[in-house]
User: What shape does this take?
Amino acid sequence: MLSDSTARDRTIARARLKFLENQDPPAPIVPESIRNSWQRSKYLGIRPDEVVVPYQPDYDRESRLVRAATPVLDRLERALAGSDACVIVTDRKGWVRDRRVGEKRLSAHLDRVHLAPGFNYAEQFVGTNGIGVALEERRPNVVLGTEHFNERLQSVSCAAAPIRNSVTGRVEGAMNLTCWNGPARTLMAALVQEAVGDIERVMYEFTSSHQRALLEAFQQVTHYGDRPVLCLGQDLVLANSAASARLTGDDHRLLHEAAAESGHAPRVRTEVRLTGGQTVLMRCRQVDSSAGAAGYLLELAFPEHPGSREDRPGVGSRTGARSRGERNASLPWPLPGLAGTDPAWNTVSRTASHCARERTPLLLHGEPGTGKTALARAAHALTGATSAPVVVDALAPHPPAPDTAPGTGTDLPAALLAAPAGPGRALVLRNIDAVPAEQAPAVARALDAAAAQGTWIVGIMGTLHHAAVVPEPLRRCFTEAAAVPALRHRLADLPALVDCLLRRVGADLECAPEVLPLLRRHDWPGNVRQLNHVLSRAAAGRRTYRIEPRDLPPSLHSTAGRSLSAWEASERDTLVQALLEADGNKLLAAQRLGISRTTIYRKMRAYGITLPTARR
Assistant: This one.
Protein backbone atom coordinates (compact mmCIF):
# COMPACT_ATOMS: atom_id res chain seq x y z
CA MET A 1 0.00 0.00 0.00
CA LEU A 2 1.32 3.41 -0.93
CA SER A 3 2.08 5.92 1.82
CA ASP A 4 0.07 9.12 1.91
CA SER A 5 3.06 11.18 0.71
CA THR A 6 3.79 8.79 -2.18
CA ALA A 7 0.15 8.80 -3.31
CA ARG A 8 0.08 12.57 -3.11
CA ASP A 9 3.28 12.87 -5.15
CA ARG A 10 1.83 10.70 -7.90
CA THR A 11 -1.39 12.70 -7.93
CA ILE A 12 0.54 15.97 -8.24
CA ALA A 13 2.72 14.48 -10.99
CA ARG A 14 -0.35 13.46 -13.02
CA ALA A 15 -1.88 16.92 -12.53
CA ARG A 16 1.35 18.56 -13.74
CA LEU A 17 1.53 16.43 -16.90
CA LYS A 18 -2.11 17.13 -17.70
CA PHE A 19 -1.51 20.86 -17.18
CA LEU A 20 1.51 20.85 -19.50
CA GLU A 21 -0.42 19.01 -22.23
CA ASN A 22 -3.42 21.35 -22.45
CA GLN A 23 -4.54 24.92 -21.78
CA ASP A 24 -6.68 24.12 -18.74
CA PRO A 25 -5.69 25.53 -15.32
CA PRO A 26 -4.02 23.13 -12.85
CA ALA A 27 -6.24 20.77 -10.87
CA PRO A 28 -7.54 21.96 -7.46
CA ILE A 29 -5.54 19.18 -5.77
CA VAL A 30 -2.42 21.27 -6.45
CA PRO A 31 -1.72 23.87 -3.69
CA GLU A 32 -2.70 27.41 -4.70
CA SER A 33 0.82 28.86 -4.57
CA ILE A 34 2.10 25.99 -6.74
CA ARG A 35 -0.80 26.39 -9.21
CA ASN A 36 -0.04 30.09 -9.56
CA SER A 37 3.67 29.42 -10.07
CA TRP A 38 3.00 26.70 -12.68
CA GLN A 39 0.84 29.12 -14.65
CA ARG A 40 3.50 31.83 -14.47
CA SER A 41 6.17 29.33 -15.54
CA LYS A 42 4.13 28.11 -18.49
CA TYR A 43 3.30 31.68 -19.49
CA LEU A 44 7.02 32.53 -19.48
CA GLY A 45 7.83 29.52 -21.68
CA ILE A 46 10.05 27.79 -19.12
CA ARG A 47 11.28 24.42 -20.38
CA PRO A 48 10.00 21.61 -18.13
CA ASP A 49 12.79 19.17 -19.02
CA GLU A 50 15.99 21.21 -18.97
CA VAL A 51 17.61 23.64 -16.52
CA VAL A 52 19.07 26.63 -18.38
CA VAL A 53 19.99 29.47 -16.05
CA PRO A 54 22.22 32.55 -16.36
CA TYR A 55 25.62 32.54 -14.70
CA GLN A 56 27.37 35.50 -13.12
CA PRO A 57 30.69 34.50 -11.51
CA ASP A 58 31.67 38.00 -10.38
CA TYR A 59 29.73 39.34 -7.42
CA ASP A 60 30.34 41.11 -4.12
CA ARG A 61 31.41 38.38 -1.70
CA GLU A 62 31.60 40.96 1.10
CA SER A 63 28.07 42.33 0.73
CA ARG A 64 26.09 42.94 3.89
CA LEU A 65 23.77 40.01 3.10
CA VAL A 66 26.64 37.56 2.59
CA ARG A 67 28.46 38.76 5.71
CA ALA A 68 25.30 38.48 7.80
CA ALA A 69 24.49 35.02 6.45
CA THR A 70 28.00 33.56 6.86
CA PRO A 71 27.94 32.83 10.63
CA VAL A 72 24.45 31.32 10.31
CA LEU A 73 25.53 29.13 7.39
CA ASP A 74 28.67 28.10 9.26
CA ARG A 75 26.55 26.89 12.17
CA LEU A 76 24.09 25.07 9.90
CA GLU A 77 26.93 23.46 7.95
CA ARG A 78 28.30 21.92 11.14
CA ALA A 79 24.84 20.71 12.16
CA LEU A 80 24.07 19.24 8.73
CA ALA A 81 27.41 17.47 8.21
CA GLY A 82 26.77 14.06 6.65
CA SER A 83 23.03 14.64 6.23
CA ASP A 84 21.10 14.79 2.96
CA ALA A 85 20.43 18.51 3.28
CA CYS A 86 21.76 21.73 1.78
CA VAL A 87 21.34 25.40 2.78
CA ILE A 88 21.53 28.17 0.21
CA VAL A 89 21.38 31.97 0.35
CA THR A 90 20.43 34.11 -2.66
CA ASP A 91 20.14 37.84 -3.17
CA ARG A 92 16.82 39.56 -3.88
CA LYS A 93 17.05 38.77 -7.62
CA GLY A 94 17.62 35.04 -7.14
CA TRP A 95 21.42 34.93 -7.67
CA VAL A 96 22.90 32.18 -5.50
CA ARG A 97 25.53 33.71 -3.19
CA ASP A 98 26.46 30.83 -0.88
CA ARG A 99 25.76 27.10 -0.56
CA ARG A 100 26.56 24.54 2.13
CA VAL A 101 25.89 20.83 1.42
CA GLY A 102 25.84 17.96 3.89
CA GLU A 103 26.67 15.04 1.54
CA LYS A 104 28.59 14.60 -1.72
CA ARG A 105 25.78 12.87 -3.63
CA LEU A 106 23.41 15.80 -3.08
CA SER A 107 26.20 18.25 -3.93
CA ALA A 108 26.80 16.49 -7.26
CA HIS A 109 23.09 16.59 -8.09
CA LEU A 110 22.82 20.30 -7.30
CA ASP A 111 25.85 20.97 -9.50
CA ARG A 112 24.17 19.14 -12.38
CA VAL A 113 21.06 21.36 -12.09
CA HIS A 114 23.20 24.53 -11.57
CA LEU A 115 21.91 25.25 -8.06
CA ALA A 116 25.30 26.66 -7.10
CA PRO A 117 26.92 30.05 -6.37
CA GLY A 118 26.90 32.37 -9.37
CA PHE A 119 23.75 30.91 -10.95
CA ASN A 120 20.29 32.47 -10.88
CA TYR A 121 17.33 30.46 -9.56
CA ALA A 122 14.62 33.07 -9.98
CA GLU A 123 11.26 31.71 -11.12
CA GLN A 124 11.58 33.42 -14.50
CA PHE A 125 14.51 31.12 -15.36
CA VAL A 126 13.81 27.82 -13.58
CA GLY A 127 10.07 27.81 -13.07
CA THR A 128 8.48 26.67 -9.83
CA ASN A 129 11.12 26.17 -7.11
CA GLY A 130 11.47 27.21 -3.49
CA ILE A 131 13.75 30.19 -4.08
CA GLY A 132 11.79 31.52 -7.05
CA VAL A 133 8.36 31.27 -5.40
CA ALA A 134 9.60 32.82 -2.12
CA LEU A 135 11.00 35.82 -3.97
CA GLU A 136 8.03 36.12 -6.31
CA GLU A 137 5.37 35.95 -3.58
CA ARG A 138 7.57 37.47 -0.84
CA ARG A 139 6.54 34.89 1.75
CA PRO A 140 7.76 31.49 3.02
CA ASN A 141 6.82 28.43 0.99
CA VAL A 142 7.59 24.74 0.53
CA VAL A 143 7.94 23.03 -2.87
CA LEU A 144 7.80 19.25 -2.57
CA GLY A 145 9.27 16.90 -5.17
CA THR A 146 6.79 16.65 -8.02
CA GLU A 147 5.51 20.21 -7.39
CA HIS A 148 8.63 21.53 -9.17
CA PHE A 149 7.86 22.73 -12.69
CA ASN A 150 11.13 21.30 -14.00
CA GLU A 151 11.26 17.50 -13.85
CA ARG A 152 15.02 17.53 -13.17
CA LEU A 153 14.32 19.07 -9.75
CA GLN A 154 11.65 16.58 -8.70
CA SER A 155 13.96 14.27 -6.75
CA VAL A 156 14.40 16.94 -4.07
CA SER A 157 12.14 19.06 -1.90
CA CYS A 158 12.89 22.57 -0.75
CA ALA A 159 11.65 25.22 1.65
CA ALA A 160 12.52 28.89 1.31
CA ALA A 161 11.69 32.20 2.95
CA PRO A 162 12.56 35.81 2.08
CA ILE A 163 15.18 37.63 4.14
CA ARG A 164 14.03 41.15 4.99
CA ASN A 165 15.80 44.24 6.20
CA SER A 166 14.11 44.76 9.57
CA VAL A 167 14.67 48.53 9.34
CA THR A 168 13.34 49.21 5.83
CA GLY A 169 11.19 46.09 5.33
CA ARG A 170 12.81 45.52 1.94
CA VAL A 171 13.48 41.95 0.78
CA GLU A 172 17.26 41.49 0.68
CA GLY A 173 17.39 37.85 -0.42
CA ALA A 174 16.18 34.36 0.38
CA MET A 175 17.22 31.38 2.50
CA ASN A 176 16.59 27.92 1.02
CA LEU A 177 16.85 24.43 2.49
CA THR A 178 16.96 21.54 0.01
CA CYS A 179 16.99 17.81 0.74
CA TRP A 180 16.16 14.51 -0.93
CA ASN A 181 12.48 13.61 -0.90
CA GLY A 182 11.58 11.86 2.33
CA PRO A 183 9.85 12.14 5.72
CA ALA A 184 12.11 14.92 7.00
CA ARG A 185 10.83 17.35 4.38
CA THR A 186 7.88 18.38 6.57
CA LEU A 187 10.28 19.98 9.09
CA MET A 188 12.08 22.13 6.52
CA ALA A 189 9.86 25.22 6.77
CA ALA A 190 10.47 25.66 10.50
CA LEU A 191 14.25 25.27 10.10
CA VAL A 192 14.36 27.82 7.28
CA GLN A 193 12.35 30.45 9.12
CA GLU A 194 14.55 30.04 12.19
CA ALA A 195 17.66 30.57 10.05
CA VAL A 196 16.08 33.60 8.35
CA GLY A 197 15.36 35.12 11.75
CA ASP A 198 19.02 34.68 12.73
CA ILE A 199 20.25 36.34 9.53
CA GLU A 200 17.83 39.24 9.93
CA ARG A 201 19.06 39.81 13.50
CA VAL A 202 22.69 39.92 12.34
CA MET A 203 21.74 42.33 9.54
CA TYR A 204 19.95 44.53 12.09
CA GLU A 205 23.07 44.57 14.27
CA PHE A 206 25.10 45.63 11.24
CA THR A 207 22.58 48.35 10.42
CA SER A 208 22.45 49.60 14.00
CA SER A 209 26.23 49.65 14.23
CA HIS A 210 26.48 51.55 10.94
CA GLN A 211 23.80 54.04 11.96
CA ARG A 212 25.40 54.67 15.36
CA ALA A 213 28.79 55.29 13.73
CA LEU A 214 27.29 57.67 11.14
CA LEU A 215 25.29 59.56 13.76
CA GLU A 216 28.33 59.95 16.01
CA ALA A 217 30.50 61.22 13.14
CA PHE A 218 27.73 63.60 12.05
CA GLN A 219 27.26 65.03 15.56
CA GLN A 220 31.00 65.56 16.03
CA VAL A 221 31.31 67.59 12.83
CA THR A 222 28.09 69.60 13.22
CA HIS A 223 28.61 70.44 16.91
CA TYR A 224 30.50 73.57 15.96
CA GLY A 225 29.78 75.77 12.96
CA ASP A 226 26.99 75.72 10.39
CA ARG A 227 28.79 74.60 7.23
CA PRO A 228 26.86 72.11 5.07
CA VAL A 229 27.43 68.52 6.23
CA LEU A 230 26.02 65.31 4.78
CA CYS A 231 26.29 61.71 6.03
CA LEU A 232 25.46 58.98 3.53
CA GLY A 233 24.94 55.35 4.51
CA GLN A 234 23.26 52.46 2.71
CA ASP A 235 19.89 53.07 4.39
CA LEU A 236 20.48 56.42 6.11
CA VAL A 237 20.96 60.03 5.03
CA LEU A 238 21.81 62.72 7.60
CA ALA A 239 21.99 66.38 6.60
CA ASN A 240 22.09 69.57 8.61
CA SER A 241 19.89 72.50 7.59
CA ALA A 242 22.70 74.15 5.62
CA ALA A 243 22.95 71.07 3.40
CA SER A 244 19.29 70.02 3.20
CA ALA A 245 18.23 73.48 1.98
CA ARG A 246 20.42 73.13 -1.10
CA LEU A 247 20.40 69.43 -1.95
CA THR A 248 17.86 67.06 -3.49
CA GLY A 249 17.65 63.28 -3.50
CA ASP A 250 19.36 63.22 -6.91
CA ASP A 251 22.15 65.35 -5.45
CA HIS A 252 22.60 62.76 -2.68
CA ARG A 253 23.05 60.08 -5.33
CA LEU A 254 25.63 62.13 -7.25
CA LEU A 255 27.57 62.89 -4.08
CA HIS A 256 27.49 59.25 -2.99
CA GLU A 257 28.92 58.18 -6.37
CA ALA A 258 31.61 60.86 -6.14
CA ALA A 259 32.47 59.81 -2.57
CA ALA A 260 32.87 56.18 -3.64
CA GLU A 261 35.41 57.28 -6.28
CA SER A 262 37.26 59.94 -4.29
CA GLY A 263 39.61 57.73 -2.29
CA HIS A 264 38.40 59.35 0.96
CA ALA A 265 41.39 61.64 1.39
CA PRO A 266 40.08 64.07 4.07
CA ARG A 267 42.41 66.91 3.06
CA VAL A 268 41.47 66.79 -0.62
CA ARG A 269 38.47 68.66 -2.01
CA THR A 270 36.62 67.25 -5.00
CA GLU A 271 34.42 69.38 -7.25
CA VAL A 272 31.02 67.82 -7.99
CA ARG A 273 28.38 69.21 -10.36
CA LEU A 274 24.87 68.93 -8.88
CA THR A 275 21.59 68.30 -10.67
CA GLY A 276 20.79 72.01 -11.00
CA GLY A 277 24.10 72.80 -12.68
CA GLN A 278 25.79 74.34 -9.64
CA THR A 279 29.13 72.95 -8.46
CA VAL A 280 30.03 72.09 -4.88
CA LEU A 281 33.38 71.37 -3.28
CA MET A 282 33.27 68.11 -1.32
CA ARG A 283 35.66 66.93 1.37
CA CYS A 284 35.00 63.24 2.11
CA ARG A 285 36.04 60.68 4.67
CA GLN A 286 34.85 57.13 5.14
CA VAL A 287 33.04 56.30 8.38
CA ASP A 288 33.80 52.86 9.81
CA SER A 289 31.90 50.86 12.40
CA SER A 290 32.53 47.60 14.24
CA ALA A 291 30.66 45.86 11.38
CA GLY A 292 32.77 47.42 8.62
CA ALA A 293 32.42 50.49 6.39
CA ALA A 294 29.27 52.39 7.40
CA GLY A 295 29.23 55.17 4.82
CA TYR A 296 30.68 58.60 4.09
CA LEU A 297 30.87 61.92 5.90
CA LEU A 298 30.87 64.84 3.45
CA GLU A 299 31.77 68.42 4.30
CA LEU A 300 30.55 70.72 1.53
CA ALA A 301 31.37 74.20 0.33
CA PHE A 302 29.16 76.05 -2.16
CA PRO A 303 31.17 78.66 -4.11
CA GLU A 304 29.36 81.97 -3.96
CA HIS A 305 29.65 84.49 -6.83
CA PRO A 306 28.20 87.89 -5.93
CA GLY A 307 25.86 89.09 -8.60
CA SER A 308 25.72 85.71 -10.32
CA ARG A 309 22.31 84.39 -11.24
CA GLU A 310 23.39 80.78 -11.43
CA ASP A 311 22.03 79.70 -8.05
CA ARG A 312 19.75 76.77 -7.62
CA PRO A 313 16.02 77.05 -6.85
CA GLY A 314 15.46 78.23 -3.28
CA VAL A 315 18.93 79.85 -3.05
CA GLY A 316 19.56 83.53 -3.58
CA SER A 317 17.59 86.73 -3.00
CA ARG A 318 15.16 86.32 -5.91
CA THR A 319 13.97 82.83 -4.99
CA GLY A 320 14.63 82.56 -1.29
CA ALA A 321 11.25 84.08 -0.46
CA ARG A 322 9.36 81.19 -2.00
CA SER A 323 7.18 79.60 0.65
CA ARG A 324 7.86 76.11 1.93
CA GLY A 325 4.36 75.09 0.90
CA GLU A 326 4.96 76.09 -2.72
CA ARG A 327 7.99 73.81 -2.85
CA ASN A 328 6.04 70.86 -1.47
CA ALA A 329 6.45 68.28 -4.23
CA SER A 330 3.83 65.95 -2.76
CA LEU A 331 0.95 68.18 -3.87
CA PRO A 332 -0.29 68.12 -7.50
CA TRP A 333 0.48 71.15 -9.64
CA PRO A 334 -1.58 70.90 -12.84
CA LEU A 335 -0.50 72.70 -16.00
CA PRO A 336 -2.73 73.18 -19.06
CA GLY A 337 -2.43 70.36 -21.57
CA LEU A 338 -0.04 68.31 -19.42
CA ALA A 339 -0.58 65.46 -16.98
CA GLY A 340 1.17 63.96 -13.97
CA THR A 341 1.36 64.06 -10.18
CA ASP A 342 4.77 62.46 -9.63
CA PRO A 343 6.74 64.41 -6.97
CA ALA A 344 9.65 65.14 -9.33
CA TRP A 345 7.21 66.31 -12.03
CA ASN A 346 5.33 68.46 -9.47
CA THR A 347 8.60 70.08 -8.42
CA VAL A 348 9.65 71.10 -11.92
CA SER A 349 6.06 72.21 -12.73
CA ARG A 350 6.01 74.48 -9.69
CA THR A 351 9.44 75.85 -10.49
CA ALA A 352 8.48 76.61 -14.10
CA SER A 353 5.18 78.21 -13.04
CA HIS A 354 6.90 80.40 -10.46
CA CYS A 355 9.57 81.47 -12.96
CA ALA A 356 6.96 82.27 -15.63
CA ARG A 357 4.97 84.38 -13.19
CA GLU A 358 8.04 86.22 -11.84
CA ARG A 359 9.73 86.41 -15.29
CA THR A 360 12.74 84.62 -13.83
CA PRO A 361 15.12 83.15 -16.46
CA LEU A 362 14.91 79.35 -16.25
CA LEU A 363 17.22 76.59 -17.51
CA LEU A 364 15.40 73.27 -18.09
CA HIS A 365 17.45 70.11 -18.54
CA GLY A 366 16.50 66.48 -19.12
CA GLU A 367 16.61 63.64 -21.61
CA PRO A 368 15.24 64.18 -25.13
CA GLY A 369 11.48 63.77 -25.37
CA THR A 370 10.70 64.46 -21.70
CA GLY A 371 8.55 67.49 -22.59
CA LYS A 372 10.81 70.43 -21.71
CA THR A 373 9.45 72.72 -24.43
CA ALA A 374 5.87 71.66 -23.69
CA LEU A 375 6.46 72.47 -20.03
CA ALA A 376 7.70 75.96 -20.89
CA ARG A 377 4.65 76.55 -23.13
CA ALA A 378 2.24 75.37 -20.43
CA ALA A 379 3.85 77.46 -17.69
CA HIS A 380 3.72 80.51 -19.98
CA ALA A 381 0.05 79.87 -20.75
CA LEU A 382 -0.70 79.60 -17.02
CA THR A 383 0.23 83.28 -16.63
CA GLY A 384 -2.65 84.25 -18.92
CA ALA A 385 -0.41 85.22 -21.82
CA THR A 386 -2.20 85.41 -25.17
CA SER A 387 0.89 84.81 -27.32
CA ALA A 388 2.74 81.52 -27.61
CA PRO A 389 6.45 81.40 -26.76
CA VAL A 390 8.90 81.96 -29.60
CA VAL A 391 11.08 78.85 -29.87
CA VAL A 392 14.56 79.17 -31.37
CA ASP A 393 16.73 76.10 -31.88
CA ALA A 394 20.48 76.66 -31.55
CA LEU A 395 21.05 73.79 -33.97
CA ALA A 396 18.84 75.37 -36.66
CA PRO A 397 18.06 79.02 -35.88
CA HIS A 398 15.37 80.59 -38.02
CA PRO A 399 13.75 84.00 -38.18
CA PRO A 400 10.65 84.11 -35.96
CA ALA A 401 8.74 86.42 -38.30
CA PRO A 402 8.19 86.37 -42.08
CA ASP A 403 9.52 89.89 -42.53
CA THR A 404 12.88 89.17 -40.89
CA ALA A 405 15.78 90.34 -42.98
CA PRO A 406 17.37 87.67 -45.22
CA GLY A 407 20.41 85.92 -43.87
CA THR A 408 19.36 85.77 -40.25
CA GLY A 409 18.16 82.18 -40.50
CA THR A 410 21.61 80.83 -39.61
CA ASP A 411 22.58 83.71 -37.30
CA LEU A 412 21.53 82.71 -33.79
CA PRO A 413 22.06 86.10 -32.06
CA ALA A 414 20.13 87.84 -34.86
CA ALA A 415 17.29 85.33 -34.61
CA LEU A 416 17.03 85.96 -30.88
CA LEU A 417 17.13 89.75 -31.28
CA ALA A 418 14.40 89.58 -33.94
CA ALA A 419 12.00 87.69 -31.63
CA PRO A 420 9.06 89.74 -30.28
CA ALA A 421 9.95 90.97 -26.79
CA GLY A 422 8.19 92.59 -23.89
CA PRO A 423 5.81 91.74 -21.02
CA GLY A 424 3.61 88.75 -21.79
CA ARG A 425 6.21 87.31 -24.17
CA ALA A 426 8.40 84.23 -23.77
CA LEU A 427 11.56 83.22 -25.62
CA VAL A 428 12.73 79.59 -25.55
CA LEU A 429 16.23 78.69 -26.69
CA ARG A 430 16.51 74.96 -27.36
CA ASN A 431 19.79 72.99 -27.43
CA ILE A 432 21.60 75.72 -25.57
CA ASP A 433 24.48 73.28 -25.02
CA ALA A 434 25.04 73.36 -28.81
CA VAL A 435 25.82 77.11 -28.92
CA PRO A 436 29.40 77.57 -30.21
CA ALA A 437 31.75 79.15 -27.69
CA GLU A 438 32.55 82.02 -30.05
CA GLN A 439 28.85 82.92 -30.32
CA ALA A 440 28.12 82.63 -26.59
CA PRO A 441 28.78 86.29 -25.64
CA ALA A 442 26.54 87.59 -28.44
CA VAL A 443 23.79 85.07 -27.60
CA ALA A 444 24.01 86.01 -23.92
CA ARG A 445 23.64 89.71 -24.79
CA ALA A 446 20.59 88.94 -26.93
CA LEU A 447 18.97 86.98 -24.09
CA ASP A 448 19.75 89.68 -21.54
CA ALA A 449 18.28 92.32 -23.88
CA ALA A 450 15.05 90.33 -24.18
CA ALA A 451 14.89 89.80 -20.42
CA ALA A 452 15.40 93.51 -19.82
CA GLN A 453 12.22 94.19 -21.85
CA GLY A 454 10.17 91.82 -19.66
CA THR A 455 10.43 88.67 -21.81
CA TRP A 456 10.53 85.38 -19.95
CA ILE A 457 13.70 83.54 -20.99
CA VAL A 458 13.87 79.74 -21.00
CA GLY A 459 16.93 77.71 -21.94
CA ILE A 460 16.64 74.02 -22.78
CA MET A 461 19.41 71.44 -22.91
CA GLY A 462 20.00 67.69 -22.50
CA THR A 463 20.99 65.89 -19.35
CA LEU A 464 23.49 67.29 -16.89
CA HIS A 465 26.56 65.78 -18.52
CA HIS A 466 25.91 68.32 -21.31
CA ALA A 467 26.18 71.21 -18.84
CA ALA A 468 29.97 71.22 -19.00
CA VAL A 469 29.85 72.37 -22.65
CA VAL A 470 27.53 75.32 -21.96
CA PRO A 471 29.72 78.45 -22.12
CA GLU A 472 29.94 80.46 -18.91
CA PRO A 473 28.33 83.63 -20.38
CA LEU A 474 25.20 81.62 -21.20
CA ARG A 475 25.05 79.87 -17.85
CA ARG A 476 25.01 83.23 -16.12
CA CYS A 477 21.89 84.22 -18.04
CA PHE A 478 19.74 81.88 -15.94
CA THR A 479 18.74 82.32 -12.33
CA GLU A 480 16.91 79.03 -11.91
CA ALA A 481 17.62 75.49 -13.10
CA ALA A 482 15.27 72.51 -12.96
CA ALA A 483 15.39 68.89 -14.11
CA VAL A 484 12.51 67.38 -16.10
CA PRO A 485 12.28 63.69 -15.07
CA ALA A 486 12.52 60.86 -17.57
CA LEU A 487 9.33 58.88 -18.18
CA ARG A 488 10.84 55.70 -16.68
CA HIS A 489 11.25 57.63 -13.40
CA ARG A 490 7.57 58.67 -13.26
CA LEU A 491 5.74 55.54 -14.40
CA ALA A 492 3.02 56.22 -11.82
CA ASP A 493 1.93 59.04 -14.16
CA LEU A 494 1.56 56.63 -17.09
CA PRO A 495 -2.27 56.21 -16.92
CA ALA A 496 -2.80 59.98 -16.79
CA LEU A 497 -0.29 60.56 -19.60
CA VAL A 498 -1.94 57.92 -21.78
CA ASP A 499 -5.36 59.51 -21.27
CA CYS A 500 -3.95 62.98 -22.02
CA LEU A 501 -2.19 61.85 -25.20
CA LEU A 502 -5.16 59.84 -26.44
CA ARG A 503 -7.43 62.89 -26.07
CA ARG A 504 -5.20 64.61 -28.62
CA VAL A 505 -5.67 61.70 -31.05
CA GLY A 506 -9.44 61.36 -30.86
CA ALA A 507 -12.43 61.58 -28.57
CA ASP A 508 -13.67 58.51 -26.67
CA LEU A 509 -10.49 56.57 -27.45
CA GLU A 510 -9.18 54.33 -24.67
CA CYS A 511 -6.79 51.46 -23.96
CA ALA A 512 -7.76 47.91 -23.07
CA PRO A 513 -6.85 46.92 -19.48
CA GLU A 514 -4.06 44.64 -20.76
CA VAL A 515 -2.26 47.52 -22.49
CA LEU A 516 -1.10 49.52 -19.46
CA PRO A 517 0.99 46.67 -17.95
CA LEU A 518 2.79 46.35 -21.28
CA LEU A 519 3.44 50.08 -21.38
CA ARG A 520 4.53 50.19 -17.75
CA ARG A 521 7.30 47.60 -18.11
CA HIS A 522 8.98 49.42 -21.03
CA ASP A 523 12.03 51.66 -20.38
CA TRP A 524 10.88 54.42 -22.79
CA PRO A 525 14.30 55.73 -23.87
CA GLY A 526 12.46 58.28 -26.05
CA ASN A 527 10.28 59.33 -23.08
CA VAL A 528 6.90 61.02 -23.60
CA ARG A 529 7.63 61.72 -27.26
CA GLN A 530 8.10 57.99 -27.88
CA LEU A 531 4.94 57.16 -25.90
CA ASN A 532 2.96 59.63 -28.00
CA HIS A 533 4.34 58.09 -31.21
CA VAL A 534 3.43 54.56 -30.07
CA LEU A 535 -0.11 55.56 -29.06
CA SER A 536 -0.69 57.51 -32.28
CA ARG A 537 0.37 54.57 -34.45
CA ALA A 538 -1.62 52.11 -32.36
CA ALA A 539 -4.71 54.32 -32.61
CA ALA A 540 -4.33 54.59 -36.38
CA GLY A 541 -4.08 50.81 -36.79
CA ARG A 542 -6.62 49.65 -34.21
CA ARG A 543 -9.42 47.27 -35.18
CA THR A 544 -11.90 48.20 -32.43
CA TYR A 545 -12.97 51.29 -30.54
CA ARG A 546 -10.02 50.88 -28.19
CA ILE A 547 -6.33 50.06 -28.38
CA GLU A 548 -5.62 46.35 -27.78
CA PRO A 549 -2.26 44.67 -27.04
CA ARG A 550 -2.07 43.45 -30.65
CA ASP A 551 -2.09 47.11 -31.80
CA LEU A 552 1.20 47.84 -30.00
CA PRO A 553 4.58 47.43 -31.73
CA PRO A 554 6.42 44.12 -31.16
CA SER A 555 9.13 45.77 -29.04
CA LEU A 556 6.59 46.43 -26.28
CA HIS A 557 5.90 42.72 -25.94
CA SER A 558 9.56 42.02 -25.18
CA THR A 559 11.92 42.75 -22.30
CA ALA A 560 15.21 41.36 -23.52
CA GLY A 561 17.24 43.23 -20.91
CA ARG A 562 19.98 44.03 -23.43
CA SER A 563 20.48 45.83 -26.72
CA LEU A 564 19.47 43.71 -29.69
CA SER A 565 21.21 43.66 -33.04
CA ALA A 566 19.18 44.56 -36.11
CA TRP A 567 18.88 40.85 -36.97
CA GLU A 568 17.74 39.94 -33.44
CA ALA A 569 15.19 42.76 -33.39
CA SER A 570 13.82 41.58 -36.72
CA GLU A 571 13.56 37.99 -35.45
CA ARG A 572 11.84 39.17 -32.28
CA ASP A 573 9.33 41.26 -34.23
CA THR A 574 8.54 38.34 -36.56
CA LEU A 575 7.99 36.01 -33.60
CA VAL A 576 5.76 38.49 -31.74
CA GLN A 577 3.71 39.17 -34.85
CA ALA A 578 3.15 35.44 -35.40
CA LEU A 579 2.11 34.95 -31.78
CA LEU A 580 -0.28 37.90 -31.93
CA GLU A 581 -1.86 36.63 -35.12
CA ALA A 582 -2.28 33.21 -33.46
CA ASP A 583 -3.87 34.83 -30.38
CA GLY A 584 -0.97 33.58 -28.27
CA ASN A 585 -1.27 29.95 -29.39
CA LYS A 586 2.38 28.87 -29.48
CA LEU A 587 1.78 25.64 -31.36
CA LEU A 588 -0.10 27.42 -34.13
CA ALA A 589 2.53 30.17 -34.31
CA ALA A 590 5.30 27.56 -34.52
CA GLN A 591 3.52 25.78 -37.38
CA ARG A 592 3.06 29.02 -39.31
CA LEU A 593 6.74 29.93 -38.86
CA GLY A 594 7.94 26.42 -39.70
CA ILE A 595 9.75 25.92 -36.39
CA SER A 596 9.18 23.70 -33.35
CA ARG A 597 7.20 24.74 -30.30
CA THR A 598 10.38 24.19 -28.25
CA THR A 599 12.11 26.84 -30.36
CA ILE A 600 9.18 29.19 -29.76
CA TYR A 601 9.57 28.77 -25.99
CA ARG A 602 13.34 29.24 -26.18
CA LYS A 603 13.07 32.40 -28.31
CA MET A 604 10.32 33.85 -26.09
CA ARG A 605 12.53 33.37 -23.09
CA ALA A 606 15.63 34.78 -24.81
CA TYR A 607 13.79 37.94 -25.89
CA GLY A 608 11.62 38.24 -22.76
CA ILE A 609 8.41 37.98 -24.79
CA THR A 610 5.15 37.84 -22.84
CA LEU A 611 1.70 37.89 -24.39
CA PRO A 612 -1.89 37.71 -23.14
CA THR A 613 -3.23 34.23 -22.42
CA ALA A 614 -4.29 32.41 -25.56
CA ARG A 615 -7.97 32.78 -26.47
CA ARG A 616 -9.67 29.56 -27.48
User: Anything to note?
Assistant: The chain has a mean pLDDT of 80. The longest strand covers residues 279-289.
